[in-house]
């Protein structure tokens, strides 16, 4: 896979293949080279675009080496974060290790923490809709004949007096805990 058609490849693809070989990667898909080239070209375009913005800001007619260095430096500082120093990590570990672990449930099998300390404790939410006063379906017909105007206004008053249909949420654990 890695040595097929070396002569027909562009110079950049040959460089990517030699980098892979120098890192000890011998067997890879041919499209890996194309993916690395795409990432490489995208990075170069972004750096040169940033360098162009920096040179325009400095009112320079062309991009120079300082603009490219500044663009690379800004990309590295915003793209990659440095880990904290070893001393800081040791202090954080010491403060965290002062807190004892929760007691485990004794029993056969793998020791587990108490159920209230786990994220897997069962908790269910049920939606219980409030029951309405009337369960008759509303009839809406757009006929030319209107029966009694007083009757239609009394129906409107009945519907406005009904309680709102907002569901009530109830939350409880599935199993009972005995303490």
UniProtKB/TrEMBL annotation:
Cellular component terms per the entry's GO annotation: SAGA complex; transcription factor TFIID complex
Keywords in alphabetical order: Nucleus, Transcription, Transcription regulation
Presence of keyword Lyase: no
GO biological processes: RNA polymerase II preinitiation complex assembly
Compositionally skewed regions (Acidic residues) per UniProt: 136-147
Signal peptide start-end: none
Molecular function GO labels: protein heterodimerization activity; RNA polymerase II general transcription initiation factor activity; transcription coactivator activity
Segments of this protein annotated with the region Disordered: 106-179
Biased composition range(s): Low complexity: 148-166
Stored Gene3D superfamilies: Histone, subunit A (1.10.20.10)
Organism superkingdom: Eukaryota
Localization in the cell: Nucleus
Protein family (similarity comment): Belongs to the TAF9 family.
PANTHER family reported in the protein's UniProt record: TAF9 RNA POLYMERASE II, TATA BOX-BINDING PROTEIN (TBP)-ASSOCIATED FACTOR, TATA-BOX BINDING PROTEIN ASSOCIATED FACTOR 9
Protein name: Transcription initiation factor TFIID subunit 9
């Amino acid at each position: 896979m890695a040595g097929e058609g070396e002569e027909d490849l562009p110079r950049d693809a040959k460089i990517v293949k030699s980098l892979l070989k120098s890192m000890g990667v011998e067997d890879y898909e041919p499209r890996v080279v194309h993916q690395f080239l795409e990432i490489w070209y995208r990075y170069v375009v972004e750096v040169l675009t940033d360098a162009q913005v920096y040179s325009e800001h400095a009112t320079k007619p062309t991009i120079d080496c300082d603009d490219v260095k500044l663009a690379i430096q800004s990309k590295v500082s915003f793209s990659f974060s440095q880990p904290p120093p070893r001393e800081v990590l040791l202090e954080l570990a010491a403060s965290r290790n002062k807190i004892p672990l929760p007691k485990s449930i004794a029993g056969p099998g793998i020791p587990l923490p108490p159920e209230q300390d786990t994220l897997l404790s069962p908790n269910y939410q049920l939606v219980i809709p409030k029951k309405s006063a009337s369960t008759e379906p509303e009839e809406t017909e757009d006929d030319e004949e209107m029966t009694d105007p007083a009757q239609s206004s009394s129906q409107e008053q009945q519907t406005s007096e009904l309680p709102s249909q907002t569901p009530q949420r109830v939350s409880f654990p599935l199993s009972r805990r005995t303490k």
